[in-house]
Design goal:
Blueprint: E1 24-27, H1 33-44, H2 48-70, E2 73-82, E3 88-99, H3 105-117, E4 124-129, E5 132-144, E6 158-169, E7 175-183, H4 189-202, H5 225-228
Region (Disordered): 205-234
Length: 234
């Protein structure tokens, strides 16, 4: 696993760090205004036969960013990995925080982990992570798929996806950190579960760039975790 820099939208706390696996590229959820303006200018300058498709993609990106920010998503990454058919399999990783409305997050997670221990048959199980107690929930479900409706079909296009979610107490004690991975490759659920668990085991609330007790702070070595991992909250 390679830990790459990530950056969250402004004004988001608390702070945590985690590793991003090979093959994942972060999607900017807080694009600078001048960058958006320049992107729109480039789209409008395209030939007419290409512009409609580019505008559709731009609108989709804007709607996706708005929806993710509304759901307190701190980071989103798109994964593309080669499959046995010579093509690419996609997956989407999101990390978000869920406030517990005055309840202590640790008690909420402990309760859910206890429930998970009794519901292994429905894809739930408790987890002992380096950052604390958590639980894993997974399911295969049908969801809307991109693209035009099938010819002669009555409804929108849909597809089956595997979705895995890990929940753990946040560093502030009042938030729950959610790490979620979704992929269309339902036959590779075991592999993607391992990816999700690997990410969760890198989750930390201690800044890896800071020295430990009694240590002298040096500049992180290029390529090291401390050099590559960026605080997700600015």
């Amino acid at each position: 696993m390679t830990e790459t820099p990530t950056r969250a939208p402004h004004g988001r706390t608390p702070a945590f760090w985690y590793g991003l696996p090979h093959g994942y590229v972060r999607i900017d959820l807080d694009p600078p205004l001048d960058g958006v303006v320049e992107l729109v200018r480039q789209v409008m300058a395209m030939p007419e036969d290409e512009r409609d498709r580019a505008e559709e993609v731009l609108r989709f990106y804007a709607a996706t960013v708005g929806a993710l920010n509304a759901q307190r998503v701190q980071s989103c990454a798109l994964g593309l990995h080669p499959n046995d058919d010579g093509g690419l399999t996609s997956s989407v990783l999101t990390v978000s925080t869920l406030p517990t409305s005055g309840s202590h997050a640790k008690a909420v997670v402990a309760s859910l982990a206890g429930t998970a221990a009794d519901r292994r048959d429905v894809g739930m199980r408790p987890l002992e992570l380096p950052c604390g107690l958590g639980f894993l929930a997974e399911e295969k479900r049908r969801t809307l798929a991109p693209g035009s409706p099938p010819e002669g079909g009555d409804g929108p296009r849909s597809g089956l996806v595997w979705q895995g979610t890990i929940a753990v107490t946040g560093p502030g004690g009042h938030d729950i950190v959610l790490i979620q991975l979704v992929t269309e490759a339902v036959d590779q659920a075991d592999d993607y579960r391992d990816v999700l668990l690997g990410i969760a085991h890198t989750l930390t609330y201690t800044d890896p760039s800071q020295p430990g007790p009694g240590e002298v702070q040096d500049s992180p070595a290029p390529g090291s975790a401390a050099h590559q991992v960026q605080n997700d909250f600015g």
